[in-house]
Design a protein that fits this description.
Elements: H1 2-22, H2 25-43, H3 48-64, H4 66-71, H5 79-82, H6 87-122, H7 136-164, H8 178-192
């Protein structure tokens, strides 16, 4: 199990580094969008390649930062139900979800995305819009993201198995209901606010 935990740490480190670096592409997408809007308004000139580049950059962030989201337990879940359950039950729910849903779905998506990408690549598929970008690089993102998510899913399964054996702390223990924290913070602010009669 220690060897598997070492593998898990490597996968986590790689996906975290990729996520942190690629998240900066959101800034690039915003700058490109801003520049494109200014040029269109001022010079009445527009570029389909710049428009499509924004979509590709967002796709890169959305797809390739997903494993990082999973590492930090920031993916969408039904928090109202999840946080009312004991930590051990949450661990089993995560294990079942990763083994029977995440990994099979990612495997099927990977299997279907490979010919999807290869067909586009061999045809050198281009944009339907004049002056647009080639399509095959964007289509490769699905395949790459699936590989990264499968690796992260394996890492999460290893961590849940180790947690159940008492080898590592429960990853769910650090997951806090942010809505409850925000509500508590707002109540504290309201409680500290002086009334209109006070000076």
């Amino acid at each position: 199990m220690q060897a598997l935990l070492g593998l898990s740490r490597v996968i986590d480190a790689v996906n975290t580094a990729i996520g942190r670096w690629l998240s900066w592409l959101i800034v690039a997408a915003v700058l490109i969008s801003t520049a494109n809007a200014i040029i269109r308004k001022v010079f009445d000139v527009s570029s389909n390649s710049f428009l499509e580049l924004q979509w590709v950059l967002f796709s890169i962030v959305f797809l390739l930062c997903s494993p990082w989201t999973l590492i930090d337990n920031e993916h969408i879940r039904i928090d109202i139900i999840n946080h009312s359950l004991p930590l051990k039950v949450r661990g089993w729910i995560d294990m079942i979800g990763h083994v029977f849903f995440l990994l099979p779905f990612m495997a099927i998506l990977l299997y279907t995305s490979i010919p999807f990408f290869l067909t586009s690549y061999h045809q050198n598929e281009q944009s339907f819009s004049a002056g647009g970008l080639p399509q095959w690089p964007a289509k490769s993102l699905i395949m790459i993201a699936c590989v990264a998510m499968i690796a992260q899913g394996i890492s999460e399964i290893i961590k849940r198995a180790a947690m159940m054996q008492g080898l590592i702390p429960d990853p769910n223990a650090k997951v806090v209901n942010l809505a409850e924290l925000e509500a508590e913070r707002l109540l504290n602010i309201v409680g500290e606010t002086p009334t209109s009669g006070q000076h």
